[in-house]
Design brief:
2 copies of one chain form a homodimer. Chain A is of the alpha+beta class. The first copy, chain A, has helices spanning 3-18, 50-72, 77-90, 134-144, 152-161, 175-185, 192-198, 255-261, 263-274, 278-293; strands at 33-40, 110-116, 121-128, 149-151, 203-208, 214-220, 230-231, 241-244, 247-253, 297-303, 308-312, 317-323, 328-331. The interface between A and B is large, with 44 and 44 residues.
Amino acid sequence: MSRLKLLAIPCLLLSLEAAGRAPPAPPPPPGVTLVIHGGAGVIDPARMTAEKEASYRAGLAAALDAGYAILERGGSSLDAVTAAVRMLEDDPQFNAGRGAVLSHAGEAELDAAIMDARGPRAGAIAGVMHVRNPIELARLVMERSPHVMLVGLGAEEFALEQGLVLVPNDYFKTRARLQQLQEEQQPVDTHRAGADSQSKGTVGAVALDRDGNLAAATSTGGISNKHRGRVGDTPIIGAGTYASPGCAVSGTGDGEYFIRAVLAYDICATMAYKKVSLAAAVNEVIHQKLEATGGKGGVIALDAAGNVVMDFNSVGMFRAARDAHGRREIAMYHETQTQ
Amino acid sequence: MSRLKLLAIPCLLLSLEAAGRAPPAPPPPPGVTLVIHGGAGVIDPARMTAEKEASYRAGLAAALDAGYAILERGGSSLDAVTAAVRMLEDDPQFNAGRGAVLSHAGEAELDAAIMDARGPRAGAIAGVMHVRNPIELARLVMERSPHVMLVGLGAEEFALEQGLVLVPNDYFKTRARLQQLQEEQQPVDTHRAGADSQSKGTVGAVALDRDGNLAAATSTGGISNKHRGRVGDTPIIGAGTYASPGCAVSGTGDGEYFIRAVLAYDICATMAYKKVSLAAAVNEVIHQKLEATGGKGGVIALDAAGNVVMDFNSVGMFRAARDAHGRREIAMYHETQTQ
């Protein structure tokens, strides 16, 4: 570099200072943010009652606030998404953990994935039948194994090796899910419409912590009346769950369509490679590409600047968001409601 | 549109014709193409013998020609990749089907995926222990189930429902793989280097057929001494296997790194969104991004114009390509050899 060029930088700074114009200050930190979902297309608005709606909202609020409390006291995005998803798994209203939908064989088979943009690191499990909180097992795979994904009996063996206590499959079964399965297995199709609309629930969370790190987590019982061993998009890194330093996504919807679309990663790739906003990337992937294939569902997504996107092409998506600027929003259909 | 503009097109065509310059003819069809791989980092060149090398080359040649014959007589890319991968699965030298590496528990656990850019359609299976040709089961999942992925016992139940005959796990076990596992399970690490270098084999194929359709297929036993239930990138659509109308990829290498990188899809997204060639996209994803994470491996990739890319950052990648323009190439390390 020539001496003239070397001199140019200090001279520029001096001239700025002399003119009273310091270099522009960096933008304020985006602040911590948590976004969660409780599934897309869970209940048709026509079948929703005021009592049910209040109960779903309460469940979403509890998970939102539990996860947000971790971020607020300086905890990691990874801990926040784990806590939020764990609470949704424990809530029998949602299709994950207790209250998961049942397979054709009448059993709960659970899938989950977690991804930490730092590293990046990822863990996923599929087809487990005796792990109370699948998201915790996915996280153990990420943190305590050299692998990303474990399935079936091998995943449960790993759970035992890690000291988890297994639970009987009956722990997951609720009367509502048994009834749903019975309706779907009736030879006549009279109940199909209602059943279908209930079969897409999944829970998930994306978070941005004080250090600017993103994480994503998703957990599900899959689809009601599914074939034994069926795995949807939830535990597929890139399909239902993905986090990079610039973009975190958790999806819910028609899993097979999400897998073929590599949907979660496609949102992040569209944003990074086409240099568009997160909202524009989600819009393109959900409302143009997914819609064109006939797939239904939605995502929650978050970028490193704290921009929140909750978008879907299904009848609704149970969702909630909270951030450091006072936003606290819980919504189910196409309305927006602040609480 | 104004009348003047409407007139402009026929006028332009007339003037071109008048000048004896017809509109440029469409480029000639790319012709059918098949590319296969037999794994990255399979054998360190220092441990390779002339006899072994000839045997691997013969195995690759047989699969290449079997798949290519289908394309040549007008068959689909889907049939060609299925046939090529099936032959590699049946060949005990390669880590897929018979001759798969063994898990820590001493058992073969097999994963496979297939994707047809038409549709698109995809099928995948993981953790199966009794299905002779995993790629055939992946294809059955794609064609005869509403799902994309089935794992473990559920996948085997589906195999039985489809009329496949299951085989005992011993069918897959070869003396070489049992010995490899024993070496890796010795408490001292004297054999680790050699064992590691053998543990990444996987087989795969990508093809372009007469109708211009792309397909991809991959099959593997995973990594030697793996935890029961471990799933690598092979059966993850977007990670180890992916096909779109413009780009088909089959990968082989450090599965966990490939999953976190959503590697196969990232190549296609880079090509489509950044508008670069397939070779440039593969170069960026393998030699910059994968390399930066410490992951090793490679891919075979094919675009709709018949451009072939076989690239890797590992010590070698067993690979072969054949096309309608007379190319017939089989290679193992960084050499290029035409046969």
